[in-house]
Amino acid sequence: AARRVLAVDDTKLERLREVLAELKALDRQALLFTWSKATLRYLQEHFAGEYRIEVLNGDVKRDKRRTIMKD
Length: 71
Prior knowledge:
Layout: H1 2-7, H2 11-25, H3 37-47, H4 62-70
């Protein structure tokens, strides 16, 4: 059922794509927060080819978190 829902146009995703493109054009960065790991995976699937994506959650080891935060 979720796959069928996601198969339709996602206007929020498209708006996010526009905002991210505007930020990139200004050489700016974005930090996105989500409570849901499923949402995080969804965003990764759609933006991984366009942007560098790093994940920070309880599954990420401390050293990796520090590396991510330095970048």
